[in-house]
Amino acid sequence: MNIKMTSQSRFKFRRGEKEDMFAVHEMIQELADYEEMSNGPQQTVEDLKRDCHTEYCHIYVLDYLKEESEKVIIGYAICYFSYSTWLGKCYFLEDIYVRPAYRRLGAGSFMFREIAAQALGYQCKRIDFHVLSWNPATEFYKKLGAFDLTETEAWHYYRLNEKGINQVTIENTFVRGPSPSYSDDLNSENAAMSATLPIDSMSMKEHQPVRKQKHFLKEFCNLSVPHESKSSVKQGRHTFAFWAVVLVLLVLTVGNLILTLTIIGVLRLGKGIYGMELIPEEDVIKFFGCTDLDRIYSKNVGQFEGFIDEPLTITGDNAAVYVRMHHRNGQIHNRLIVDKSGVQFRGINTLDIKDPETGAVIFTTHRPHYNMPKGANMLLSKSIGATRIASAINQSLAITAPDDRLSIRGSEGIRIDAAAMFLQAEHNLLINSTQGALTLEANSGIYLNMEKIPIVKAEMGLRTGSVQYKLCVCMPQGIVFRIAIPRVHNGPKVSCAHFSAKHDPCIIN
């Protein structure tokens, strides 16, 4: 949707009608999604229709008049009256919202000024509203003259939800006797006694004498209390014994819970251990389900196996898994490390990874063959000793050294066999034979890429039209360069020294 900048005459701010509440309900959900509280709105469209024309809820909408004389609701605001003990009548702005497609047209400031005009018409002394700390509209409100009470007066916004209201109400409830009777028998001896007493005002307890209770009821309720029977006293003692037993059981339950949590913390079984079976004669411990342990230690050769139908999974809680070897001298060495970067192993003779169902080896370090597992494309190692390195058919083999120099050595020689071979270095490529000659041999001949060998300007400048070049080498650097040989040459013979001093190819920058 393309919207052009327009004058504020296209805006119309009005009180919302019942037929507007569906659009208002949609925008309330849009605002909740923007504030990352999508599950917050509980109001329905019917609730908004019921409250939109009441005195305690003022729902406003903002219309936008299009060029075709068609109007569309692009924003809403909800306000209600509040009261200040210092100033009197105030106006509280609960929500103000403009749909994203119609922003930056001045709609927000237009709505706010119209709300201020409404507050002035209602003779309100101020407008209060709350803004999330990360909302970029805070700068907009400051420009309009609003100030942050949290910064200036250290006010904090508190809320008591419906559950809290019910809880507070329950804590201040009343103790009620039998329902009041308004019959003519109220003053008779058989009439039921009725009293309603606030908990905060009661000072009676089970152990107080009956005379004091009578005196209290007489003064508080102006009611006559019949004589207590022996059965009432006995019932009170039974009640006291009952609650004493309940209190003792509660203390025992809490103590048992604390002891259980202590055992769980000491054994580090925080995430649960569903089952464990000890088999001493087989020197085996079986774990069932999920087990959370810090470490497993074995004095002898340790073996970890899973059940036939359930593979064994060892994971770390946001950490690596280490398999360590403890030597007799107390030193600890990591032999196998599994973390996010990969699998690292060192100082071991063999490592076999087998298929849990078929038992086939899918990864092994056993000599003389080292097979890369399926799906692994790179082997990272500082040093590899092997008699042969090969790649699969129709697959290229790349040997790189990203951080240091690459050295390939062979005690009996090195042989590289490939359909096509590329030697590439970022800086320098050195092929050296310390005790013998270096031989380049090919059935179809040896070719040099002349485009990569620089042409050096001669003393008389760069010669054009040349088809032949003299290939020269700077010693001892070994830098190769070319000097053009002209087609027609009547002067002295061109040598490797016929180059300009300004363009000396043997000088290394």
TrEMBL record:
One of its GO terms (cellular component) is sarcoglycan complex. Component of the sarcoglycan complex, a subcomplex of the dystrophin-glycoprotein complex which forms a link between the F-actin cytoskeleton and the extracellular matrix. It is a single-pass type II membrane protein. GO terms for molecular function: acyltransferase activity, transferring groups other than amino-acyl groups. One of its GO terms (biological process) is muscle organ development. CDD domains: NAT_SF. It comes from Glossina morsitans morsitans. This is Beta-sarcoglycan. Pfam families: Acetyltransf_1, Sarcoglycan_1. The keyword Disulfide bond applies. InterPro entries: Acyl_CoA_acyltransferase, GNAT_dom, Sarcoglycan, Sgcb. PROSITE patterns: GNAT (PS51186).
